[in-house]
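[Q] Does anyone have a clean structure-token version of this?
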Amino acid sequence: MTKKYLLNLTFLLALTIFSCSRKTHPNRSTSPTIEYNYPPIENKSESPPPANKPTLNRRSITSNATKEPIPKVIIVNDSAAHKSVDGRYYYDVMGHRYWRNKKDGKYYLFNKSMYSDPAFK
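[A] Here you go.
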């Protein structure tokens, strides 16, 4: 029994010494280093302040100077559209909601007449 104990102790001691060997650890110089070359930061105190600083109010934030026209009808794949609780399909684009017409499958910009139209129910 003492021979087994001594043999196990010797094996564990050899395993511990070998596991801490330098051969099992990667060399630090072999790992790649990443260098970032950022442009130098300019001192902002040296630049003069802008002459005409634009003021933002509520109206200028909500309206763009270059407004794109909003289409009344769009064609969307039904897999990209969302399904509402009552089973109708809708699609949101730039803050506008389009509802699917069941007759032609196109998506129309929301208006109040959709409540009475059976194609949108």
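[Q] Thanks! Anything notable?
[A] The radius of gyration is 35 Å.
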